[in-house]
Amino acid sequence: MADEPGPGGLSHLDASGAARMVDVSAKAETARVATAEAIVRMQPETLALIQEGGIPKGDVIATARIAGIMAAKRTPELIPLCHPLPVTGVTVDLAPEGATGLVIHATVKTTGKTGVEMEALTAASVAALTVYDMCKAVEKGMRIESVRLLEKRGGKSGEWRAE
Questions:
Q1: Is 36 exposed, middle or buried (0-12, 13-18, 19+ CB in 10 A)?
Q2: How far apart are the first and last CA of the chain?
Q3: Measured distance CA(47)–CA(124) in Å, rounded
């Protein structure tokens, strides 16, 4: 049957191993939330410029926040097998981490038949890429690190938190 999981029980593969979009039509709609993180590592001088508003391209924090929000809403256009979801809320927070890091937390909410983990990961990733883009004239050696899911709630699998 076409809806049966593929090799290794992977839901995005059919029984023959071909990629497919999972059919979620029989699933119940539930409140779902996911939070992801990304960290941008840089020189202390670059972080200080961001905090002081001294980056020539403008307000890095505000621009990265908006980019992350926009990215969460456009995730199915970027990740081929993601379902378009009615995203009901997105927050993207950026804060210094020590003298050389900018940590990004992206939280996405929906009421739907599938989770918003990919939307949260996409939001954090694009916010981090935006920080890089806005600051690359000052420092090309920045690193985007530790893009990961921190937690998810809702759906059949319930709650999950990173250790």
A1: buried
A2: 37
A3: 18
Helix axes 60-73, 117-135, angle to 10 degrees: 150
pLDDT digits (tens, 9 = 90+) for 66-121: 999 999 999 999 999 999 999 999 999 999 999 999 999 999 999 999 999 999 99
| pTM, 2 dp | 0.89
CB neighbour list of residue 128: distance below 8 Å, 6 or more residues apart? 38, 39, 40, 64, 104, 144, 147
Q: Are 35 and 105 in contact (CB under 8 A)?
A: yes
79, 120 Cβ separation under 8 angstroms: no
Give the separation between CA 28 and CA 112, rounded to whole angstroms. 8
What number of CA atoms fall less than 13 Å from residue 137's CA on the CB side? 9
Question: Catalytic annotation on 133?
Answer: yes
Which residue in 14, 23, 59, 133 is the catalytic one? 133
- Spatial separation of the C-alpha atoms in residues 28 and 26, rounded to whole Å: 7
Query: Token pair for residue 138?
Result: 């000052």
For 38, 97, 136, the CA distances from 35, given in Å and listed in that order, are 11, 18, 27
